[in-house]
Each structure stands twice: as C-alpha cells, then as structure tokens.
Design goal:
The chain is α/β, with parallel strands linked by helices and 466 residues long. It is built from 15 helices and 20 strands. The strands form 6 sheets. An 8-stranded mixed sheet has the order 7-4-9-1-11-14-2-15, with helices on both faces.
Length: 466
C-alpha cells in the first residue's frame, strides 16, 4: 500500500509539473478603480486588505496610465496591444474586429493559447455587452477564451423603492443619458456570494484548482466599483460618513481648460451633489464598492494560494482607468486629466524575489509585451507597448517612457515624469507641471517660457500617433 501511495504521489507531481514548465498567469481587471487603494495611497481611508497584502510581495506601479479613460477602448488597447490611434477604437460602441485591418487580431489570451496555454475567463474582460439594460451581461471577444463564464455584471439591485434614495434630481441640473439611471448608491441586504463579482471570482478560483496539463491564462473581471454603487451594506458600514474626507479641489478649476475641457466635465452632476450635500455619501459609496471588490479579489487570491499553482502563477492586477469624484467638477471617467488617466497596476511574479514600488511612467499598453516576456513566449514585434520586465527586476532601473492616453482623433494626452500635456481637436493645449502641481490646477501652456517643453511634447505625440 505504501508503494502504491508513493507511485501516486510521483504521478501527481509529474502531472502538476507538466503544467509548470511555463508560469501560469492570473489577470485581474477591476472596472472604474482609481488609485483609492491602500497600497497605492490615492485615498488614505480606503480599506483594501487583500490588494494591500498582494502588493507587499509585488512590484507596485504608482504611475501607471490607461490608453483611454473609458472601458471599451482601454480594454481593447490592453488586450490587443494596440493604441486607440492604431485601431480607431476610441469609444464604447466600436468593435475592434469590425475595424479594417484588425479582423484577425491575435488578442493577449489568444497569443497565450497559440503558445500552449489553456485559457479561461469570468466577468468583464472585454467590453462587449450582452443582455438587458439594467444588468448588462459582459462577455469576451468570441474566441479569445476557451472557457468562460458569461454572467450579469455587478451586484444585486435593491428593490425599486430604494433606488435613487439619495434624492438627487439630476434632470434639474441638465444631466442626460444613462448617467441619470446609473448614478446611484445603496447598501444592499445581500450576502457576498449572491453577487455576480463574487461568482466571477469563484468561477476563476474553481478553474485554477483543477488539474492542468498545460499552463493556464485566467482572466477575472470585477465590475465594481463601476456604477451603480450597489454593494452589500456591511461594506458601507466600514466607513463612518462623518469622517469621510473629500477630494482636494480648487474653485473655478475649469477656468483655464478651454471650451472642450469644460464640455467634458459633468458639471451638472457636481452641482447637484454639492447642492444636496451628498458629496460625502457619494465618496463613501465609491469606497464601499472598492472594499467589496477587494473582498472578491481576496476570495480568488486565497484560493490560488491554497492551490498547487501558488508558486508558479504570475498575478497582474489593474484598473481599466481612473475615476473623478468631484475633481475638476467632474464625476466619471472619459476625460484626459490625471484622475481619469491614472490607474492602479501591480505585478507579482513568484520567481522574482524583488518587491517594492516603481514611480516610473508605464502604461497598460505595456502589459501584453510584458507578459510575453515574463513567460518566455516568442516576441510579438507589432505591439505598441514595451515590456516593463526591467522594472520588475529593479523598480528604479532607467526608464524614460511617456504614456499616451487618447479620447478621440486629435484629442490626446501625454504623461511624462514631470508633466502632463494635452491637446484638443480645436488646437487648445493644456500643460501641467506635476512636480509642483499634482492636482493639475494651473494650466501653464500659455506661458511662453514653456514653449520648448510644448514643442517636445508635440514631437513625441506625432511620433506615437504614426
């Protein structure tokens, strides 16, 4: 009996070993999550113990930026490896496979599949919406994953009588479109496991804990803190409303951003929130939903850590873009300022004993080539990004890249170590010196002393848009 047991153990080790020739990958994408996460220090009130624990053994990128501050173009860019200016996907309605020349694009998970990986996903990875208006179902790009759970996004909706109980009448402030329905928050009487984000995490956890003949690439999409901000009440209870700290803002901050910048900001929402004295409530709701997202991530990470693959699985965690909560009189994303463009990114590689913080400027466009590099796959030399493996080996290594964030044709922003430069289709420019103005309160583009800096950014932008 003892001999049989020894043979069985050896067989199991061989079986697991087959899947361990190359590292596995767990990609976690969190919707609308800005840097209000403990490890990223965007908001000191944030309660995110699971992400923080992962960050302790990872390389945390404090200055990571999205290619577009909107779900579809950001995700499309990261998962195809091409900038919005390359594919032409700038909004939520375009589908990259319908764009001329990109019908046969090899996405990140497809590239891993082509190189011997099994792939699986749950939750919102690509943006493709399926299902009804109230709880849109998010699936993937068909064919990008071998196994996938397609379920309703977000959390369980409260009874109709509790919806919009915050009392805001946004119509009176000129707010139109889907924001009227989605800008809402409520602590629901639900258990964690009843919510769809938790189910997505469980699906990925169950997949990881199967026996694998091949290395795996698993993507888990967490919908919260995307609007509406419905989450189990216990996460709202983590935060004392009276103690909520509001973002630091400047009165008349939009005075120097030009016509298009003013048009982008949701000033009506901001005025409604201020007039109703609901700013603290809204901030608490966003924090509560981030804490719920963190709990879902913890469920997944705890399961990975108990699996046979814990010591050979690279974990990448990111937001798809940032989110404004009153900064520049804006609520939402889809603008070109720092708060919307900046997003959390951390990478844990169990083979790398290095951990720490990198303040170098990186982009989500770099994730595709980086994972190829880390997993030893053949180089794909048509990608717009650049591997940041050198920063994983040493967070302080030399790195002088500039991050590009786009909103539309002729509407782009560049972030360097010290500056943010933005240009609009009408030619209006913004320039902020982040060394002395991290909140981007003073547009210095009209200062003739900065002409050399502007010329440099114009040249860099022209090169990146080729």
């Amino acid at each position: 009996m003892k001999k049989y047991l020894i043979v069985l153990i050896l067989l199991v080790n061989v079986f697991v070993g087959l899947a361990q020739e190359k590292p596995n990958v767990l990609l976690i994408m969190v919707d609308d999550m800005n840097d209000w996460v403990g490890a990223f220090e965007g908001n000191q009130q944030a309660i995110t113990p699971n992400i923080d624990k992962l960050a302790e053994k990872s390389i945390v990128f404090k200055n990571s930026y999205c290619s577009a501050a909107l779900c579809n173009p950001s995700r499309t860019s990261m998962l195809t490896g091409y900038n919005p200016s390359t594919t032409g996907v700038y909004g939520n309605n375009e589908v990259f496979r319908e764009m001329e020349g990109f019908e046969n694009t090899i996405t990140l998970p497809q590239y891993f599949e082509q190189n011997g990986y099994s792939t699986a996903a749950a939750g919102k990875i690509f943006h493709n919406a399926r299902g009804g208006k109230e709880e849109p179902k998010h699936g993937s790009d068909p064919g990008s994953f071998q196994v996938e759970r397609i379920g309703n996004a977000g959390t369980v909706y409260p009874d109709a009588k509790y919806r919009h109980s915050h009392g805001l009448n946004l119509k009176e402030y000129g707010v139109k479109g889907s924001f009227l329905r989605s800008f809402d928050w409520y602590g629901t009487d639900t258990k964690d496991e009843e919510n769809n984000d938790w189910k997505s995490a469980e699906f990925c956890a169950d997949y990881i804990n199967q026996e694998h003949e091949k290395p795996f690439f698993v993507a888990c999409g967490i919908f919260k803190p995307h609007l509406p901000w419905y989450a189990p009440k216990k996460y709202f209870d983590l935060y004392n409303l009276d103690e909520i700290q509001l973002p630091e803002v400047l009165e008349n901050d939009l005075a120097d951003v030009g016509r298009m910048g003013n048009n982008m900001a949701k000033k009506g929402v901001h005025k409604a929130v201020l007039d109703a004295n609901k700013w603290k409530e809204a901030v608490r709701a966003y924090l509560a939903n981030i804490s719920f997202a963190d709990a879902c991530i913890g469920e997944l990470l705890n399961s990975l850590n108990k699996s046979p693959y814990a010591t050979n699985t690279i974990v990448v965690l990111m937001g798809d873009h940032g989110w404004h909560l009153g900064e520049k009189e804006h609520w939402s994303k889809n603008v070109l300022w720092e708060r919307a463009a900046k997003t959390p990114l951390l990478i844990f590689d169990p083979r790398n004993k290095e951990s720490g913080v990198s303040t170098k400027i990186v982009s989500l466009i770099d994730v595709y080539p980086t994972l190829i590099d880390l997993c030893g796959l053949p180089v794909k030399d048509d990608l717009d990004g650049k591997s940041i493996k050198t920063l994983l080996n040493n967070p302080n290594n030399k790195w002088n890249e500039v991050a590009l964030t786009s909103k539309a044709v002729g509407m782009h922003s560049l972030r360097s170590e010290h500056y943010r430069y933005t240009v609009y289709p009408d030619g209006f420019e913004e320039l902020y010196n982040h060394t002395i103005d991290p909140n981007e309160w003073t547009n210095i583009a009209n200062d003739k002393a900065n002409e050399v800096i502007l010329q440099r950014f114009r040249k860099i932008l022209k090169k990146k848009l080729k």
